[in-house]
């Protein structure tokens, strides 16, 4: 088990000699090291794990290290850019962001050790006394409050829990909350079924005996046994091969497992929480999820609605993410009212994770202490979730605007047949022509004015 106070460091560089030297010093300073040789690898590593420190070379085979700033949660990760060109130092300084630090190659070992020591000191600080929502789940919407109640109720029971929701809604956070609410003394062990090669998954889950297959040099305890007395979180359950789903079902029903290559059944007391961002019914229909497993594991379903369906959570979460950044960097940045409105109106296809990234980005790019426009303007009106038969109307649009968009959308829907559009809208055909003429005149006015 990794030590909570051992800094985790990500080294992103394709210069093997440099990586070896930097990793050696960091290990000697008591850090855990992960290495990535490209932007793509770094993004994958960052998805799987939160790092305390990321050392990123500016010139990577597939792009600039600066592009990683967006993929990274700067409220917990310290970003340090590495460059071989001292002139870049001044360019990076000119960004005037508290977020980035920099190191020049060849490394000054003293400065590097100091950086590692600062990271170690930072993570050893006690967590802020103020708790950000129950179990770290912030929000004020009725939906979120209901979910918190469900977590408290189901937590202490033995029921399996299936968390459903789009990507980035907070499924893993909910799984952890269920574990906290369970009072179970064992560990929370998470496995992403979609991230492990299918042929390795069985031995990762159930463990294996020595010599059970080529390369199995020693007995290995699987996640089931590691989670004994605790909670096993099966993320992306529908990515698990169906023959393994059958083994999983048997483990749930008999409360015991058998290691790969083993002959005895081992009793395990493990609470299962699974998550999926697909509809379980669709997954059953597509043959990706066994129906019998679904009924067993979906004993207690928790459905996390997308962020756009609980807009009351948006300001709370945005303020929370911004406050963490202010605390971390000693700044006092704030959203203007217009900025908050903009955040509330956006449709958040990437849910809370996207909101966090938008806040991080706005924080980095802010000119002063007031953040005015966190989202690039065109996105806000982007009718992301519109179909030919629906219209997205944002709070704050004028009646004129709504009427105009409704008219054009309806006309398009009826392929410009004004009689059918009129009848659908409950007005006369004459009204449609009047409106169109009025819009045309207004547009001509606008064009004349801007010319
Ligand atoms: N209610 C919340 N309060 C605070 N932070 C939240 C909340 N919901 C989500 N987050 C944060 O948003 C990010 C995404 O959440 P999480 O990883 O739990 O989503 P997920 O549903 O598991 O996504 P994916 O399907 O992509 O795995 C995390 O950083 C998480 O801490
Ligand atoms: Mg997840």
Automatic annotation (TrEMBL):
Pfam families referenced in this protein's UniProt entry, alphabetically: AAA_lid_14, HTH_8, Response_reg, Sigma54_activat
Ranges of residues in domain Sigma-54 factor interaction: 137-364
Single GO molecular function: ATP binding
GO annotation, biological process: phosphorelay signal transduction system; regulation of DNA-templated transcription
InterPro entries: AAA+_ATPase, AAA_lid_NorR, CheY-like_superfamily, Homeodomain-like_sf, HTH_Fis, P-loop_NTPase, Sig_transdc_resp-reg_receiver, Sigma_54_int
Source organism, top-level taxon: Bacteria
Entry annotated with the keyword DNA repair: no
Modified residues (4-aspartylphosphate): 57
UniProt keyword terms in alphabetical order: ATP-binding, DNA-binding, Nucleotide-binding, Phosphoprotein, Transcription, Transcription regulation
Domain Response regulatory: 8-120
The protein, known as: DNA-binding NtrC family response regulator
